[in-house]
Amino acid sequence: MTSPVSDVPAFATRPVPAQAGIGLRPAHFRRVLQERPPVPWFELHSENFFCAGGELLEVLTQVRRDYPVSLHGVGLSLGRADDIDREHLQKLKRLVERFSPALVSEHLCWGAIGERHLNDLLPLPYTEEALGVLVTHVQTAQEFLGRQLLIENVSSYLTFRHSTISEWEFIAALAERTGCGILLDVNNIYVSSVNHGFDPQAYINAISAKQVGEIHLAGFTRKYNLPVELLIDSHSRPVAHEVWNLYRRALAHTGPVPTLIEWDQDIPELEVLLAEAATAEGILHEQRALAA
User: Fold this and answer.
1) Into how many domains does the chain fold?
2) Angle 210-70-113 (CA atoms, 0-180°, nearest 5)?
3) What residues form DSSP beta bridges with 277?
4) Burial class for 9, CB neighbours closer than 10 Å (0-12, 13-18, 19+)
5) The domain spanning residue 226 has which CATH number?
């Protein structure tokens, strides 16, 4: 399949509903295109489609015709200490203008400095100085793209002694100062709460419901062969019971929000993801009934 830029149709924005979608990965491209499963929406990684044409762009074109789409970035490194990567931002702008996704998101982290890029989403020290850098970069990105970004909290395995602000205060302040939204990753909150010993409910309570534009759910891995228990945000397992419970509590705070099932390693058959999404949809239905 080939798809030159000139052949890509113009799309009108289709809102992502407050229902449970799936992170669409290459392992499931063919089945989704052939079978058109009844999934309310899909999220795809932006950087996979930074191409001028070819098979990947054709996949996104076909998915975008049939479903609302969210684009989720992993490489913009908004927390980097130097200037934001303008070339990366330009590629993202072309993609956003071409496909008009309902939501565009990135991470509260850094992963690059100068020409060096690390294959990880690294945490920031939560200080006023770091917040100022992130505010500048998020404002720059939103102005350049001409639209709001959702910023996702990441899982972490260390903290900085010189942090002066809690993570939840940091991300809430970022949203207030820039007008960005928050992509609340409930799994990441739970993972970090176990690793660092904080109350995950305090995190959720500190976030204004109006700031939350999307929720992520995923599976983690436990590491026992260490001096202390450590959870790894592996995206290679079903959503854990503890995370489902925290998700219920998060929805009680935010109300129904578009929710995504993420699975990026040891990817199972599509039916497994559909079952996870059905569980999330059931919890969303519970919340709607309580609010009625």
Assistant:
1) 1
2) 90
3) none
4) exposed
5) 3.20.20.150
Question: What is the residue whose two structure tokens read 């925290």?
Answer: 246
Condensed to tens digits (0 to 9), the pLDDT of residues 93-137 reads 999 999 999 999 999 996 656 666 656 778 899 999 999 999 999
Q: Is 45 exposed, middle or buried (0-12, 13-18, 19+ CB in 10 A)?
A: middle
Asked if 68 and 14 count as a contact pair (C-beta separation under 8 A), the reply is yes
Cβ 261 vs Cβ 255: under 8 Å: no
Q: Are the beta carbons of 244 and 199 closer than 8 angstroms?
A: no
Cα–Cα distance for residue pair 48/68, rounded to 1 Å: 18
Alpha carbons within 13 angstroms on the beta-carbon side of residue 247 total 32
Maximal CA-CA distance, the chain: 57
Return phi, psi of residue 70, to 5°. Answer: -115, 140
Torsion angle of the four alpha carbons 257, 263, 267, 271, in this order, in degrees rounded to the nearest 10: -20
What single letter denotes the amino acid at residue 48? N
The residue segments making up the domain with residue 9 are 5-291
In this structure, the number of other CB atoms found within 10 A of the CB of residue 238 comes to 18
265-286 exposure pattern, b = at least 16 Cβ within 10 A, e = fewer = eebeebeebeebbebbeebbee
- Given pLDDT bands bounded at 50, 70 and 90, which one contains residue 2? very low
114 alpha carbon, distance to own chain's centre = 24
pLDDT at 5 over 80: no
pLDDT value of position 29: 97
